[in-house]
Amino acid sequence: IHPDQKRLVTKAEDFLEIQAGGCTLPCGTTLACGHKCKSICHVIDQKHINY
Questions:
Q1: How many angstroms separate the Cα of 38 from the Cα of each of 15, 25, 30, 35?
Q2: Mean confidence (pLDDT) of the chain
Q3: What share of the chain in percent tops pLDDT 70?
Q4: Residue 46: closest CA among 34, 35, 31
Q5: What is the pLDDT of residues 5-23, one digit of tens each?
Q6: What HEC string does 6-38 produce?
Q7: What distance lies between CA 31 and its chain's CA centroid?
Q8: CA dihedral in degrees (31, 25, 22, 49; nearest 10)?
């Protein structure tokens, strides 16, 4: 979704600092109702079917 967002993970503990795939940008996808998704970028339910 945001390919320019990369996180360097060098040790297991680094995974504790990344959320939902590592991107910290807002999702911002326009939903069927016309509102924007307020979640942080997410890899689960990218099509917002279960939003």
A1: 23, 10, 10, 9
A2: 83
A3: 86
A4: 31
A5: 777 889 888 878 776 667 7
A6: CCCCCCHHHHHHCCCCCCCCECCCECCCCCECC
A7: 15
A8: 0
Question: Residue 1 — pLDDT band, cuts 50, 70, 90?
Answer: low
CA distance 20 to 41: 7
Instruction: Give the residue carrying structure tokens 């807002």.
Output: 26
Two structure tokens written together for 45: 């339910």
**46 by DSSP, 3-state: which?**
coil
pTM over 0.90: no
Q: Is 40 helix (H, G, I), strand (E, B) or coil?
A: strand
